[in-house]
Amino acid sequence: MKGPGKVVPWLLVAAAVGVAALFSHAFLKTKKDRAADGVLSAPAVDSDIRLTDMDYTEVREGKPIWRIKAHEAKYYEGEQKTLLSRVDLTLFMESDREVHLASDYGLLHTGRKDIELWGRVTARVPQGYEVETDKVYYDHGAQKIRSQAPVRLMGPQVDLQGNQWQYDLATSTVFVEGEVRALVRGLFSVRNGK
C-alpha cells in the first residue's frame, strides 16, 4: 500500500504539467489570433536601425503620395518592415484632398508600401467624416484603407457604427458593413409638436 507521502509529489508534477500545457495553449492561440487579425507584433530580433521623430514622405513623379511621422521607428531589413510608435499618416489624393490617420502603433511594409495601424486609430476623410477603430490596413496598390475591427464613423449629419470599414481613395467612397447602426440628424423637422 502506498503512503500519502508518495502520491503528493506525483500530483504536484501532474498539476505543473497541466498548468504548463494550459499556458502554452493560451500563448499559441493568442499568437494565431493576432496573425489572423492581420496585426503583426515586432519581429523577434533587434532592429537594424532605430530612429526617433521620423518624418518620411513617399514621392512619385514629383508628387507626394503619403507622409508618415512617428515618434519612434525600428527598421528590420531582413523582413522589410518598419515598426512605428505614435504614428501620424497623411495620404495625398487627387485634387489636393487628404486623408489623415493617427494611431498608437504602426507597421510599414517597406517593399510594397502597405501600412498597418493599430491602437486607438482615428481617421479624417475629405467629406468631413471622422472614423474611430482599433486597427486599419492601408493597401497601397489598391489605394484602399480597410478595417476588419468594429468602427464608428461620425459626420455632420450621421453617426454610423459597424463591424467593418473601407475607404476607397480613388473614388472617395466610404463603406461601413456588418451590423450597421445609424443615427441620422437633420432629415426631418418638427414644428410646434406637429
UniProtKB/TrEMBL annotation:
Keyword annotations: Cell inner membrane, Cell membrane, Membrane, Transmembrane, Transmembrane helix
Any one cellular-component term (Gene Ontology): outer membrane-bounded periplasmic space
InterPro entries assigned: LipoPS_assembly_LptC-rel, LPS_export_LptC, LptC
GO molecular function: glycolipid transfer activity; lipopolysaccharide transmembrane transporter activity
PANTHER family assigned: LIPOPOLYSACCHARIDE EXPORT SYSTEM PROTEIN LPTC
The protein's name: LPS export ABC transporter periplasmic protein LptC
